[in-house]
Amino acid sequence: MHPFQYLAPTSVAEAVDALARYGDRARALAGGTDILVQTRTGRFDLDAVVDVKRVPELTALTLGEDGLSIGAAVPCYRVYEDAEVAGLYPGLIDAASLIGGIQIQSRASLGGNLCNASPSADGICPLIVHYGQAHSAGPDGRRSTPVEEFCVAPGRTILEPGEFLVSIELPRPPAGFGGAYQRFIPRNEMDIAVVGVGSSLTLNAAGDRVESARVALAAVGPTPILAHAAGDSLVGKTPGIDAFREAGELAADAARPISDMRGDVNFRKELVRVLTRRTLTTALERAQS
Questions:
Q1: Would you list the DSSP string of 126-160?
Q2: Strand pairing of 151-153 and 225-226?
Q3: Does residue 130 contact residue 146 with C-beta atoms inside 8 Å?
Q4: What is the DSSP letter of 211?
Q5: Which residues on adjacent β-strands are paired with residue 171?
């Protein structure tokens, strides 16, 4: 790792200018829990690291009538320690409290987790099932992208040179909404998911039919997967084990896992079935409460 410039802009415009000036040889730094390790190990050969934590928009956590805005550099602990956010977005809290250990959570951000674009990232599936939108800024201005379209390959996102993630916005959940995230890991903590599943559903006013639902999968494809058919299969149905079992089968069909030392294809598909049923059950309990 050769010497590089450390830049700390205080506005979005300054950050864009700094990243554009160095192109592919610059990266934004939010928490630093991924980028610094990757730079040391030679994944990136950088001439500049642009610390975005001094940009107010990137460190703001704002809950309003329309929903939640999470700055790209907001550390995980600020998300799960906010009681009102935790009450409205429990599926997000499931993930934010799992990323690394408590020390990592004091630095790592959901925005950084998204930009790292790991197929097994814990934070991305909950953002997807909470209908998250990623807001980025670059030399050509600002744009918004559904979170499920943000990652394009392992370690790669839609971000162009000079562009960086500013914030993630989640709409305010309607009445009758519930979300959940679970993963399977060999160890109790600080491990990479063999499979992760995030689910959400919204019940009708009577609470006896599903109006909308989403299921998202981690670690079973080159990017996190929004299993459209699994979520769509629940719409109009009475929520319960039979409907959840069918959704689990459809989620397993959407999975594209590989076999490696952590588990083979069949094992991972079975985990998708099980975790889909479990997360939908938890989401239903939360929706009813």
A1: HHHHTT-EEEEEETTEEEEEEGGGTEEETTEESPP
A2: unpaired
A3: no
A4: E
A5: 67
231, 209 Cβ separation under 8 angstroms: no
CATH number, domain of 214, equals 3.30.390.50
Confidence of residue 231 (pLDDT cuts 50, 70, 90): very high
Question: CA–CA separation, 200 vs 129, rounded Å?
Answer: 6
The rounded Cα 206 to chain-centroid distance in angstroms is 31
Residue closest to 134 by CA, chosen among 147, 149, 151, 119: 147
- Together in a domain, 167 and 185: no
Q: Which residues, at least 6 apart from 149, have a Cβ–Cβ distance to it below 8 Å?
A: 158
Q: How far apart are the two ends of the chain, measured CA to CA in Å?
A: 52
Do 135 and 204 have their domain in common? no
Given its phi and psi angles, is residue 161 left (phi above 0), alpha (psi -120 to 50 degrees) or beta? beta
DSSP state of 172: P
Tell me the mean pLDDT in the region 158-171.
Answer: 96
The dihedrals phi and psi of 149, each to the nearest 5 degrees, come to: -105, 0
CA atoms of 283 and 234, how far apart (whole Å): 13
Tens digit of each residue's pLDDT (9 = 90 or more) over 250-275: 999 999 999 988 889 999 999 999 99
Sequence-distant (6+) residues with CB within 8 A of 275 are 182, 183, 184, 195, 196, 197
Residue 33 belongs to domain spanning: 5-51
Query: What's the rounded mean pLDDT across residues 111-127?
Result: 95
Closest by CA position to 216, among listed 41, 44, 66, 95 = 95
